[in-house]
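Why this split exists: single-chain examples teach little about how molecules sit against one another. For that reason, every record in the complexes split bundles all components of an assembly together and asks for one structure covering all of them. Below is a record exactly as it appears in the raw files.
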Amino acid sequence: MKSLFLETNECYDGSQLTSLRNYLKFGILGDSIVSWIGPCHVTPEHMVDGEDLLAHAEIRGEKMLHFIVELFDSSLFAAVGIQRLLAAIVRDSLRSASTKTALVNQLTRDGDDIFCDDGKLSISIATQSPNSSLIHFAVNVVNRGTPVRTISLEEFGVEPVVFAKTVMDRFVQEVNSIREATRKVRWAR
Amino acid sequence: MKSLFLETNECYDGSQLTSLRNYLKFGILGDSIVSWIGPCHVTPEHMVDGEDLLAHAEIRGEKMLHFIVELFDSSLFAAVGIQRLLAAIVRDSLRSASTKTALVNQLTRDGDDIFCDDGKLSISIATQSPNSSLIHFAVNVVNRGTPVRTISLEEFGVEPVVFAKTVMDRFVQEVNSIREATRKVRWAR
Amino acid sequence: MKSLFLETNECYDGSQLTSLRNYLKFGILGDSIVSWIGPCHVTPEHMVDGEDLLAHAEIRGEKMLHFIVELFDSSLFAAVGIQRLLAAIVRDSLRSASTKTALVNQLTRDGDDIFCDDGKLSISIATQSPNSSLIHFAVNVVNRGTPVRTISLEEFGVEPVVFAKTVMDRFVQEVNSIREATRKVRWAR
Amino acid sequence: MKSLFLETNECYDGSQLTSLRNYLKFGILGDSIVSWIGPCHVTPEHMVDGEDLLAHAEIRGEKMLHFIVELFDSSLFAAVGIQRLLAAIVRDSLRSASTKTALVNQLTRDGDDIFCDDGKLSISIATQSPNSSLIHFAVNVVNRGTPVRTISLEEFGVEPVVFAKTVMDRFVQEVNSIREATRKVRWAR
Amino acid sequence: MKSLFLETNECYDGSQLTSLRNYLKFGILGDSIVSWIGPCHVTPEHMVDGEDLLAHAEIRGEKMLHFIVELFDSSLFAAVGIQRLLAAIVRDSLRSASTKTALVNQLTRDGDDIFCDDGKLSISIATQSPNSSLIHFAVNVVNRGTPVRTISLEEFGVEPVVFAKTVMDRFVQEVNSIREATRKVRWAR
Amino acid sequence: MKSLFLETNECYDGSQLTSLRNYLKFGILGDSIVSWIGPCHVTPEHMVDGEDLLAHAEIRGEKMLHFIVELFDSSLFAAVGIQRLLAAIVRDSLRSASTKTALVNQLTRDGDDIFCDDGKLSISIATQSPNSSLIHFAVNVVNRGTPVRTISLEEFGVEPVVFAKTVMDRFVQEVNSIREATRKVRWAR
């Protein structure tokens, strides 16, 4: 699995959650994770989360740290599991990166969401294209422009670019070792 | 997904990692997690982890808290991801359950292993039978009888039965919400 | 599996055979069957049955009882099998519901079609979306507006709303017990 | 799909539900259904139905009409659906073949079981081998030697060999048309 | 598997690589290969090969022998393997059909490409639709209108229509025997 | 994909066609091909080819060059396709390696078999284990001990160890590029 931090400040509007994008735009072949910092404004036509569509939710933020993952030879069931591991890695990495102990101790993961007390740190969705699984995960860099009460990396005193690379490194290691684990176990009866 | 704490002190020898066991022995149909406290001594014939087989590893412990998970409509790739979420849940639950702050702050998850400093808290394997995915996860209740340097629930001052139920509750909720998440997302291009 | 009778008289034009519709419009999560009474006029752009397309068939009826089924974790091969079970259930339910013995004794199922002598009672198609299987099944409530010789619930003296609920109940029970059957059988060599 | 009536009176003990048997014993390649008349006595070691195992059920009959189906490129979910279509075909064929109107009108299908009033006509199981789906379906030819109240072809005045061929013909036609149906439908969104 | 040589000189522009086309246009149900002679000009919107898209490649030829294959119950991984067998068959058939020994001895297959010295004989792509695998393979009939150095059937003195039929016959036989091979082997541990 | 030439003269008796063997015996993780030179004598209990079993075939040779391939995330359908590519690679490599032009020009591939005139050069089988695909391919090094008319590397004047490495190199490159090809193509409608 490959990773790349992108020097762009592109707005994430949902259209980026498309198969092969990491290959066709950045030449990264196979399982991959890319990351960049930019606004977030998901338009209804690109909204894939049925729950958000039912609730007419707004998905917005002025400055977020985005991750997009593409996995091949994966089902949606597997991808949602891995999405949640990504949430767990983000939370663990934030705990290590931040010196704000009081805040850090309130970090909880609920499914694919990370909260700190009643502030929402992140948004995420996992979906399936006809040839791959796709995950979007984004963390608030600042709290501006978000439709609900949020918390952001700023309050944790965490620099987003370094953080992005730490998260991607751990995630790549996690997915690689999951793939390996499927090739070294004998089947059971 | 259903869960059950078993009032037994059966030794886990690896033969329990068999498809349909939770149904055929306990009448639990479908996705399930069961748990009990007992010794652990995995004999080579039931050892499915190729890495352990290559290393002639010993898998032993005098008293461990065992979890066995069975998942249907799942690939091994998905099951390994979910095994690691179980590890994350065990670690988070231990952090909440224990008052030994110094110890708790040293808890780390590395793939499917949980460590506290250089002590190993747990063992785990995920495998596939022809009709389901199977996971064994076990946590030392005491340190006796283990072939490597370990740490145990005893040192964390955590009562294993209550702990087992907490872990199973969180895990059931996690897997249920993963299944749901696969049924409410639109596919992407 | 959930079911819902819809108080609408929407025309079925084929656009309704779309993944997640039952969730996004009616909040029904997971495997589902919905039913309503309304006209039928499938436009070529929404026609998915290649045989109909090749034959330039017209798919029309002034008043039909529609069923739409969505199944997750299912292949098209499985879905076509289940579509035919739905046809069998419709026929059996009609036999029970109607007192017109002479007519009832002429009811036959041929694949996914139900005939009574040379009158066609129903139309149906099963297809696959990238994340689910989809089935449309519709029974004539009256014979008006149909392009071939048809027979309808009217001639059987059967009230369509009660009939719809009976069919849905039996179908839900059938699919649930099929799912269960896949979780309680040992694999064979 | 191919079919063959076997001139044997072999006892069905469950060992016959093995992948490739129709090919390795009778040279029939691919999807197949075979049939023969013989006793039935399934020993626990070959019992694959977990429900029967849990209930310590006896599966016996002195003279039954057996069908064994093997399907390739099929999941267990699909196979259970098709098993029930086989049950529906058996019931429909019996209705056509028998002149005992009173009895015939009491025939009902409940999942994979066929009943006539409170008499059980048939037994069945569908399972999965690592390379195919397998179905056993058997109908009592006489009532002797059965552990529950049964009904048999004898009471319906139906000759089993002709009946077997009729059932196999309809089943082959059903499965062939299901396969075809998966190759002529456009996918949906 | 069925084959058909088409009496058309349609330009291949990439839009032909669509599921069910062989059925919906020519009535050929199931696995199929069709062939015709015509120009080639793939427009970017119908270009599915990411490598070509990244390289802004031109895919053109004034007169090519086209093959389109559709395979059901197949993964993309399987389809790419079979695409390369098609390339191997084209090369072998050309070797047999041509009397230009010097040229023929320089024919090499590199993945899905066939070269003769530094001249490219063919272009090809394999992709997946939501309900089938699709392969396009085309051989230059003449060298005109191609964006790179090519070689063509003309130089080999090979008549394209006869050649097309030979290739299709061998390919049909190959795929049929592959399907059969999956139904006559016992599974391994 | 990894390859390894083994310094052993072990007799291939069919027991070697077992999942994870390349990992558990040689530490090679993931897709792999190994090769060695040794006798061949497949006992009926390890014979997986149903055709051989039906024909009571003998599978023997005094000295053969064996290849065993293990592929993960692969179906049997894909594996049989890749087995035939291996046959094509063996034939092409032999053509390049040998200076016996007359013989070389008679080499033909028929499915997974390679013939030279009426002499059989090779034997092969592809099968599926519950967690991988497995291929055995073997080429006669000498003609002794074979039950049918054979031809061998000796007659081609080809040194088997160098030949084995050439074949494995080409095969690894082929499979790697097939995997890559599945990750760089856009899906089709």
